[in-house]
Design brief:
Elements (H helix, E strand, L loop, with lengths): L11 H15 L93 E7 L3 E10 L100 H19 L90 E4 L2 E3 L58
Antiparallel strand pairs: 1-2, 3-4
């Protein structure tokens, strides 16, 4: 005999009606109604591409559900069951995921900025009596063995959460709160953890190779067996004098351009750690600058004039190059993971009548690049890794892609 207290599984048709009404509400159209799906059984259903902003899905069962690029911004997913759900590219900004279970879920490239994964007090139904008999347990947000490769978790609250053996490869986790979290055996290779709080966290056996650990106090976490080889830490010592010298070189580069080559000269920053300059290079005139092998992680270079600049093998992960002019720039072997190239000029640079040199990204690492609207006609992307790059609206006419990695790139066909 079936238990009348067991939640009935909603059909795909019923869910569609509810989602249509919610989207009408969000868009301000007649007949709109907020989606209240708390404790609903939506296991295995398809919510892909739908707008569930501020919907109530608290306690809902979404096990194995398909929600590719679904908008859950500010949604209430408190205590929900999202085990093995497909949430690739979903928007979960500021979502309430306290006590939610995402064990084995696929959250690749999802945006979880400021999402809340902290401990939640969850009501659990009795195994035999169903909803007639409830008990309350304290449960942390659970991400064990989930895939978050390339996801954004900036400012997320993961204090006390569990992410055992979770894949955070190339994630952006700036300012994330991870105090007391269980990250044992997690893969954080290449993750950008600037200013993250990890006091009391368990990172035993974690892979932190090449991770950005600027502003992170690793002495307050359990790090036994963790691999931090190649990780990026804070620049050592007092760098004020060196920063002044580097800035003077940059201003000399600008003077060289403004004087038509009579004064100053192109700046040579090869091998330098330019992070000590902060945002000082933003919008400057720096054509022909040389920064081969330089460390420029997270720097703001938006609007800078960098025509013909040389960034070979430089580290520009997470940098902001929006609206910059990089025509004819050399970026061979450069690490541009999660770099923003929105509206960036990357076309050929005229060097003589009838002669021009293309922007060159040969062998560059451009995973998860944000290149919407970038202008890159004739650019060379041979052997470059553009896994999951966002290229919607980009001008790529005549670009070269020999042996490039393009799996998961968005907008490439249209471009």
């Amino acid at each position: 005999m079936s238990n009348p207290n067991v939640r009935r599984h909603m059909t795909q048709g019923e869910l569609t009606v509810t989602l249509d009404a919610h989207e009408r509400l969000i868009e301000g159209r007649p007949g709109g109604r907020r989606a209240v799906l708390n404790f609903a059984n939506l296991a295995g259903l398809d919510l892909s591409g739908r707008n569930l902003t501020e919907a109530d899905l608290s306690g809902a069962i979404l096990e194995g559900a398909k929600a590719l690029k679904t908008n859950f911004e500010r949604a209430n997913l408190f205590g929900s069951d999202l085990r093995r759900a497909d949430l690739r590219g979903a928007n979960l900004r500021r979502a309430d995921l306290r006590g939610a279970s995402l064990r084995g879920a696929n959250l690749g490239q999802a945006d979880l900025s400021q999402a809340d994964f902290r401990v939640g007090r969850i009501a659990v139904a009795d195994r035999f009596k169903g909803l007639e008999s409830m008990r309350h347990v304290m449960r942390p947000g659970e991400l064990d063995e989930a895939n978050l490769a390339g996801a954004t978790l900036d400012g997320s609250q993961m204090d006390g959460s569990s992410a055992f053996r979770t894949d955070f490869t190339d994630c952006s986790m700036r300012g994330a709160k991870l105090s007391g979290a269980n990250l044992k055996d997690a893969n954080l290779s290449g993750a950008m953890l600037q200013d993250a709080e990890i006091g009391g966290a368990n990172l035993e056996g974690a892979n932190l190779r090449g991770a950005v650990l600027v502003g992170v106090d690793v002495t307050r976490a359990r790090m036994s067996g963790a691999d931090m080889s190649g990780s990026l830490r804070d620049p050592p010592g007092d760098n004020s004098a060196r920063a002044a010298t580097l800035l003077a070189l940059a201003m000399g580069n600008q003077q060289w351009l403004e004087s038509g080559g009579r004064d100053g000269r192109p700046a040579a920053f090869d091998g330098e750690d330019l992070r000590i300059l902060g945002a000082a290079l933003k919008g400057l005139l720096l054509p022909a600058l040389s920064a081969r092998g330089a460390c420029m992680v997270g720097m703001d270079l938006s609007g800078a004039q960098l025509q013909g600049a040389n960034f070979e093998n430089a580290d520009l992960r997470g940098a902001n190059l929006n609206g910059a002019d990089l025509r004819g720039a050399r970026l061979m072997g450069t690490n541009l993971t999660k770099t923003s190239l929105r509206q960036t000029k990357l076309g050929p640079l005229a060097i003589a009548p009838g002669r021009a040199t293309p922007a060159n990204f040969t062998g560059a690492r451009m995973r998860y690049v944000r290149g919407e609207g970038m202008d890159a006609p004739g650019a060379l992307f041979d052997k470059a890794d553009l896994h999951a790059a966002a290229l919607t609206g980009a001008n790529l006419a005549g670009a070269s892609w020999k042996d490039a990695i393009l799996d998961g790139a968005i907008g490439l066909m249209a471009a």
